[in-house]
Amino acid sequence: MNKEPLYLILIVDDNPNNIRVVFNFLKKSNFRVLVSTGGEDALRKTKEVTPDLILLDIMMPKIDGFEVCRRLKDNPETREIPVIFMTALAEIENKVEGFALGAVDYVTKPLQQEEVLSRVRLHLKLHDLNRSLQEKNHNLSEEIAARLAVEAELKQLNKKLDIRVQERTQELSQAIKELHIREEKLRHQATHDSLTGLFNRAWLMKFLSEKIADSRLKKEENSILFVDLDRFKNINDRFGHLTGDGLLKVVAFRLRKCLKSRAEIARLGGDEFLIVVPGKWDTNKQSSLIADIFEQFKKPFNVGKYQLFVRVSIGIVPAIDGYLKPTDILRDADIAIYQAKQMGRGCSVVLTPEMRAAAWERIQLESDLRQGIEEEQFCLYYQPIVSLSTRKLTGFEALIRWQHPRLGIVSPGVFIDIAQEIGLISALDCLAFKLACQQIEKWRRELDLKEFPVVNINCSAQRLQQPEIVAQVRAVMGKYEIETSAIKLEVTESDFLKTAHQAIEILRQLHDLGIKLCIDDFGTGHSSLSRLHNFPLDTLKIDRSFVTRLTDNRGGEEIIKTIISLAHRLNMDVVAEGIETREQLDKLIELNCEFGQGYLFSQPLPGREATQFLIEPSLFAH
Questions:
Q1: Would you say residue 32 has pLDDT above 70?
Q2: Burial of residue 383, with CB atoms counted within 10 A of its CB: 0-12 exposed, 13-18 middle, 19 or more buried
């Protein structure tokens, strides 16, 4: 079997992957192969060896394929070497330039093995024929016939290439069209909420930035409506999240119906929506929009098999001039919506400078409170608890006070609710328990008393829901060597009702340690008296509101009588809070109430003054 002559092919390409592919199939096809990774290297190698054909890449750094071809054709020693350009489809328009430089053909990338081999073999044949005509005096007609046959074959290859180019062009056009569709879909997803179809938070922040810039240039002013569903969590809890999602879709549709021209609406997340209204807010001119929104929410929402009734609260930022960042606008919108919720929900509130100032004060107080707990800027005041029959001191209620570095002594009425809202109440309870144990340890160390009072320490519902409370209480009391009989934990009735199911086991564990338990402010939480026997309680405190009604004929006496009677049947002692007059004291003694506290005996006292009551118990003998 005759083999093809071992032609030498020079591959010139700066892409190693392309070189590797072409090198492999040329070697398999019995060609000798020389490679070069750049134009300068190719020109240098052709001075040392003359290849039979060059496969030349057009797009290369420093010297591109066209320049390499030009230099080869300018050199008499390399002028006759056939050059086939390798090019991507987008470079086809450069054919004319390439042929003008003397190239014999093009092959397109990605390279097809069959096409490259066919073109290489054809041009090698043509090259051989040309050399044969120059070297030998062959029969002209045979040579022409052979040449025509080769050219016909080349023409057929070019025809196939043109067809393939058209097909690939159509494919590329379709791919570009599909790419545009996907890009548009991605752009929409990036700026729209997937559930409601409204603009999303990312779009809103960019839009607000643009509006802030416009307001600085005095081009346009805008106002903001922050719309929030009232008690949406109840919908999710009662009917499930699918129903909640369905409700949000209908809400979005109705809100969109209310908008005037050029107003934009976005979903911030959850049940929060924000509307950007052109122009500064004018209640007289724009109140119709608020009315339309509230009107939409008077109608029932039919979601699946449920008919739901939902109200909204609306916070209004009247203008955005002067704002620097979108987050500042959202912060103030949140302040306004908070005020609307505080006013009873289902209403709208326009932000005022006073609201913003109060919010800033609240934010500062929250920050101070975190730092204050961390730095233990707190102390305990002690209000005496007295035996009503003997007037002897029997205990103290430890009441926490904040020794604020700037504001001085701050009462719990200022910070307790904040601590609960921001999740710091448990940390505050831990600190109060520690401070009380420190004081008890100090009294035992410094005072020689036969009997020490029991210290009542307040404990929140959040604290009682933490299983680690038992170990923590045991550890603190062990550190200060406090007997469990010296401690009584107080839980308000409202908190007690919240934790009755979740924390009853924790209450039992604390009681088993020897710590007594007291229910505080009894009568205000609407608990069932018959349920008290289910819990390990030692003391019941009657709320001061009943004590004040003892002497004004408003039924206080009968209520207190009932409470005391029940408590005694359940083996609990009773403490009356808020005793301020002798008449109240006498009535409580008459009703068999054992203990009491109030301003008649003493207001809450700092530790040093409370110590005096331990040293001089006669202070209560009046």
A1: yes
A2: buried
